[in-house]
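Anyone? Bumping this.
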Amino acid sequence: MSLILDHVNYVYGDDTPLAVKALDDICLTIPDGQFIGIIGHTGSGKSTLMQHLNGLLKASDGSIYFNGEDIYDKDYDMKKLRSKVGLVFQYPEHQLFEVDVFTDVCFGPKNLGLDQREVELRAYDALRKVGLPDELFYQSPFDLSGGQKRRVAIAGVLAMKPEVLILDEPTAGLDPRGRDEILGQIKKLQTETGMTILLVSHSMEDVAEYVDRIIVMNKGKVMYDDEPKKVFRHYKELEEVGLAAPQVTYIMHALKEKGLNVDVDATTIEEATRQIYKALTE
Amino acid sequence: MGIIKTKNVVYEYIRRDEDGNVEGITKAVDDVNLDINQGDFIAILGHNGSGKSTLAKHLNAILNPTEGTVWVDGMDTNDESQLWNIRQTAGMVFQNPDNQIIGQVVEEDVGFGPENIGVPTKEIWERVEESLRAVGMYQFRKHSPNKLSGGQKQRVSIAGVLAMHPKCIVLDEPTAMLDPNGRKEVIRAIRGLNDVEGVTVILITHYMEEIIHADKVFVMDQGKIAMEGTPREIFSQVEKLKNLRLDVPQITLLAYELQKKGILLPDGILTIKEFIQALHL
């Protein structure tokens, strides 16, 4: 079930001369438990699409169904949708504000009207899930490192117990280890809890490494929607729309051109190492 | 003396609690010595919190050292009477282009700096034109910055610094918020400034691929310079970099993994071309 988008259109600045069609006839089905990467150049409509999924923007035309219910129905409970579809914005650490980490994470569930015990249980659980060490729970969020702050911000959304988690470039500005740690935790979350994850990313290497399915956005339309291997076969077309394939894809193509018998579909270092080793030792 | 020189630079943050009492002192920069030659392309790597941004802010007197001295083109950054000359000599570009653009039209934005230091009008326009051409944004001079892509905006920010005719540009993660194409455009523009215009470049980044052409790489950890060398020397030390929360370019990592499996390859391969040559294909 989960999320279904049916011919969704969105126009910015409608009835002005500057009207821009940001989403153009989007049809997507997002089943439970998938890890999906959304890629596209700046201005391709990724963020606009994400903001539709929890009702922050309302489609100019078309319908969105969450667990079988039309979210644009007059008596649909938008507040419930927003707690079920969690959105982590870019640089979410800018939204931290409480005196300590634990209180900050409690803010969301407290606003759901839950009792204090449940609020604290959820906050504790969420902080564990993002891998934040216990001794940091009562520190000021502003004393933490960039990667730690970001994990606290993600925990704030997780404490709402969403069924779908949308992350808009969660690794921007983090050092390489910080990137791996955050994405590793998210992957673990998906496999252990079956949560649906949508990851907006500009890093093709990250997307290739972690997701099951890639949606490529271009000019407000879905350009490709497939498993990573198949999407990156179109690396030339991706370049034309301001994207790229993972660096490994280019390496494999260059080797193949030089006559080495490797599978050009390899997109991660691990696969590439195996392929090249096999080809060299055969 | 080089264009930028630092001697035993230390910078301490004083942490205070809510009532303003001193809680402790953090040494963000700890005894850093740099000597950067005019025209060099320098890269600074380091994990979040390693002190690279704090160090960068010393290079045009946004911050002054707690101990030690920083010279920009021979001027001591503690000498307040030289402040404007220092800032003109060493320009700075930050991560988020939206925070750096103020003009309603691209060419006005680029002209803002020179206008403020009283450059004659005719020369302002000449500087605007040459700066926008240098970053490949001349055809957008009449556009509104709001309508540009991230990479284009960031190139406008760089043009704005360039119009001040600096000898040195410090860029603090200029590509962190950009898509792959935007990253490529910005890096190409930066390399052009260095190769063609001879501007000294100091690039701080978390993307290892961006610095394989640098003349020298400094790696920071806990406020200190932990490693320094050419990109090849630095990227040959895969495990050490990983321990410092960093990485190597993907091609370097691939070659390293194959080495571990017994394939004969030299250390520190940086490009696909080198990789193919090393495999004798």
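Late reply, but here is one note on the structure posted above: The interface with chain A takes residues 15, 46-49, 95, 149-151, 173, 176-183, 206, 208-209, 242, 245-247, 249-251, 253-254, 257-258, 261, 263, 272, 275-276, 279, 281 of chain B (CB under 8 Å).
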